[in-house]
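Dear support,

I submitted the protein below through the web form. The confirmation email said the job was done, but the results page showed an empty box. After a refresh the structure appeared. I'm attaching both so you can tell me whether what I see now is the final result or a partial one.
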Amino acid sequence: MRTALGDALTERREFVRTVGTHREDGSYVVARRGADSSGHRKVFESFAALRRLYDRLPDEFTAEEVGRSGLTGGRRHMLVHHVAEHPAFECELDKRQPLTASKVRAESGGETED
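What the results page shows now:
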């Protein structure tokens, strides 16, 4: 079974706390770095599915808000860490307790918000 799983993996990218893997079947797997059990990973049908989940989150979000999509337990926290670590998402961690991240907005030509 491990051999079959290994053959299915096509691109693996490690970050500080998480790992993202694009599989040949088009799915995208987010896993806690160094963890072996399925309780520490979430399989999305595609990277675009993860992007849609991220796009639905508010500008500042907690693990609890990620959980509203149906994720439970440590997977919620893992996802918050993953989007903060992955360069495809303009996101950064704000607080560890409660785990909170915010979407980073690009500067808009010197204009400031009041």
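Response: this is the final, complete result; the empty box was a page-load delay. Residues 2-103 form one domain.
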